[in-house]
Write a structure and sequence with these properties.
about 30% helix, Rossmann fold, alpha/beta, about 350 residues, 9-stranded mixed sheet, single chain, globular
Length: about 350
Amino acid sequence: MKDAMPRFDLPPADLRAYRPDVAEPADFDAFWRSTLAESRARSEAPRLTPVDAGLTTVDVYDVTFSGYGGDPVGGWFIVPAGAEGPLPTIVEFNGYNGGRGLPHERLAWASAGYAHFFMDTRGQGSGWGTGGVTADPHGTGPSVSGFMTRGVEDPDTYFYRRVFTDAVLAVDAVRSLPQVDAERVSVSGTSQGGGIAIAAAGLSDGLVGAMPDVPFLCHFERAVGLTDRDPYQEVVRYLSVHRDAAARVFETLSYFDGVNFAARATAPALFSVALMDPVCPPSTVYAARNRWGASSGSTPAADIVEYAFNEHEGGSGAHWPRQARWVAERLAGAGAGG
């Protein structure tokens, strides 16, 4: 095992109280209302195709649903074999530049009795893992290699406008499936997937819970100046060339900051954070967790698990059992069963 880097962020006690001022556009809510309304107007019913994945304990479906602008987005829908539902459901989002992979890599939630939808991230899926299938058919102008700066000088053209819209419409699509109990849907994801889950929680109503695991895409201005790791360094490299664009870039990023979505969340959350994480610095995670529900008119709980001696791997496989217990407790507390 490689040596972990030393802690470089705030002391743990300061992290737990960290509530920074994060830029929030005056038209943040209007921007997202119009974005979602435009794409929902072009949505079609999701298409499910049964897949023989060589698995006997689960049923697997290849899914295509309508995302941003009506674009087709892929995913896997996996349920316990023979299940008719309606089942509590987990919608999961993936890490940076990973794809939906293969069905046998996504068995935990269905094995625990849930329906599980794993969304493919548009344009990604070629950096690690076993691939993705979803194109991103939109041009973005000049950008640094990667996804962080694609269209970053205008919120209308920014890459994550499309991804976050896909995520919300994934929740919509899942709720329309007969195997799914639309009142018992949770969202989850690790790293980029955690950031997407935060956005989905801030933009979707009626979720049971959100489980952002070492989330990315939070408190951009601090992250870009604090860590020397990608993907945040993509923004640094872009601004090192486009020297006069910083104000425009950070204004765009404010429409996509996980802290602002977290403030609008109405469902309870279970975060995780790694205190030696150089990719998603712990203060950026706590910035989102400590604002959870602050602007939503409700008071959802935001639990957090600290992994004191881990980097960006966080709790890895040790964290899923905590998530499974947590979401089961939320369902039981709602009188819905697990």
